[in-house]
Design goal:
single chain, 2 domains, 5-stranded mixed beta sheet, 18 strands, elongated, disordered N terminus
Length: 332
């Protein structure tokens, strides 16, 4: 095997490992992702390829608004590490981002210093749960700081695995009725990306009361779909938007006809790192997208936006067409 081919294979293995690692850590209780941004002193993480950074940004925005309105005298950092696990898990502490898990942590840590660290992974009602944990942390800040101080005084061999308030206490906090202050905060509308990019044209959805409301910016921002979760969106400005609520199911909304498709399903979906929007054809009303399975190739799709119809297994049609054309052209 040539050296160039070997290097290419090595890079693919490395890339596959990174993607698998990121996917794993963001779908489990230990939600160590990449810290991607902040709203004032509230920091949040998320994967850029899907919708997690926007969803976690929305929660961070609500936390910041909550602190400004109800605890204006507190100026601590808040560090949110949020995931989407099926089984709910949560931790609350006064700590550094990702504890001491970073190599040369003090130099490379994305967020410097200590703050109220909230680790939560659950599928629904994420904003409500985070705000409840935040409120508890703000009201018990002295206790959190003392626990943290005692924890870091211990040598590595004697430290517990996790620095957190007792999870039994936190479970009661999360299951407690919402306060009026939290209810008021959840009613705020948080638009995707907070309107920082093309706010007047690309208000795809807003987040309110722990749900996602998709709106048509060509039709007076009318709501056409309400979802409890969003996995990924593929937008084509004039044609419409593909909305995946999971990695294998979704909808299409046509901005031309103002129609929402019935729910479609990707058949035999394999584990992958999100979909890629490869191209669009506005004249023919088509959106092309695919996902890549390591060592198994690409799975390709065409969405017919005027017919609200998904064509699957496009790669098989391509292979058959190539075979027939080659056979026809090489006869005799």
């Amino acid at each position: 095997m040539h050296e160039e081919e070997t290097n290419t294979l090595d890079m693919r293995y490395i890339l596959c490992f990174i993607i698998t690692f990121i996917t794993y850590i963001n779908s489990n209780g230990n939600t160590y992702g990449v810290m991607t941004g902040n709203i004032d002193s509230v920091f949040y993480s998320g994967i850029v390829a899907g919708e997690t950074q926007y969803q976690n940004q929305a929660v961070a925005f609500l936390c910041n608004e909550y602190i400004k309105k109800y605890y204006p005298s507190i100026h601590e950092k808040v560090i949110l590490e949020l995931g989407f696990d099926e089984i709910s898990s949560y931790k609350l502490s006064y700590d550094k981002f990702e504890g001491d898990s970073w190599i040369n942590a003090e130099n490379n840590r994305p967020v410097k210093g200590f703050g109220i660290r909230i680790q939560l992974s659950q599928k629904y009602n994420r904003a409500e749960s985070v705000l409840k944990l935040l409120d508890y942390g703000l009201n018990h800040l002295s206790e959190l700081k003392k626990t943290s101080n005692d924890y870091f005084k211990l040598n590595d061999d004697n430290r517990p695995d996790d620095l957190t308030i007792d999870t039994i206490i936190l479970k009661k906090v999360i299951e407690s009725p919402m306060s009026q202050n939290i209810q008021n905060t959840l009613t705020l509308k948080v638009f995707r990306n907070l309107g920082n990019v093309g706010y007047g044209f690309y208000k795809e959805y807003y987040f309110q009361n722990d749900k996602y409301y998709f709106i048509d910016y060509f039709n007076k921002d009318s709501v056409y779909l309400e979802l409890k979760q969003v996995y990924q969106i593929i937008n084509e400005y004039y044609l419409g938007t593909l909305i995946f609520d999971t990695d294998s199911t979704g909808y299409f909304y046509s901005r031309k006809s103002k129609q929402l498709s019935s729910k479609f399903e990707i058949k035999d979906k394999k584990k992958s790192f999100y979909y890629i929007h490869t191209s669009s054809d506005n004249d023919k009303n088509r959106i092309y997208f695919e996902y890549d399975i390591y060592k198994q190739g690409k799975k390709k799709f065409i969405y017919l936006t005027d017919k609200l119809f998904l064509i699957q297994k496009v790669e098989e049609f391509e292979d058959e067409m190539i075979r027939k054309e080659f056979k026809k052209c090489t006869k005799g």
